[in-house]
Write a structure and sequence with these properties.
The chain is an all-alpha fold and 171 residues long. The protein is built from five helices and no strands. The protein is rod-shaped, with a radius of gyration of 31 Å. InterPro entries: AH/BAR_dom_sf (IPR027267), BAR_dom (IPR004148), Endophilin_SH3RF (IPR050384).
Length: 171
């Protein structure tokens, strides 16, 4: 009732401390940017949306995500197979083997980067959103409910004093 009356402009609202309001605004800003950065980093590390959904499901089911071959490693595999087809002794075959090996190293580095970024960068962001932010939200709701209770009590007290003053005036 208090909340509705405040929204309709029929009841007074106790304002929170300006510093506290600033902290709440900063917390909201931090949460919003953390969500955006987390989502975009996931897109950068895994551009394929269906693969991201699959990884998300594995994560929620507490199962190990199957190791996926990177595009660089796949290209290296094709180059090595082509080199073997053309003959490893031919100039084209030798070149394909060299480039394929380099591509394999790049693919392995990419896989290591994705793994490292997931553990060292994405995990702390998720921990903030799933842990700290939930606590902040819960405490914020509790504070809001207590403020509404306080304002409702103030309104009842004001009405009681007004009724008492009216009763004192009328004989």
């Amino acid at each position: 009732l208090q909340f509705t009356e405040e929204k309709l402009g029929q009841a007074e609202k106790t304002e929170l401390d300006a510093h506290f309001e600033n902290l709440l605004a900063r917390a909201d800003c931090t949460k919003n940017w953390t969500e955006k950065i987390l989502r975009q980093t996931e897109v950068l590390l895994q551009p394929n949306p269906s693969a991201r959904v699959e990884e998300f499901l594995y994560e929620k089911l507490d199962r190990k995500v199957p190791s996926r071959i990177t595009n660089g490693e796949l290209l290296a595999q094709y180059m090595t197979e082509a080199a073997n087809d053309f003959g490893p002794g031919t100039p084209y075959g030798k070149t394909l083997i060299k480039v394929g090996e380099t591509q394999r190293h790049l693919g392995a580095a990419e896989r290591e980067f994705i793994h490292s970024a997931s553990i060292n960068f994405l995990t702390p962001l998720r921990n903030f959103l799933e842990g700290d932010w939930r606590i902040i939200s819960k405490e914020r709701r509790i504070l809001q409910n207590r403020r509404l209770d306080l304002d409702a009590c103030k309104a009842r007290l004001k009405k009681a004093k007004a009724a008492e003053a009216k009763a004192a005036v009328t004989p």
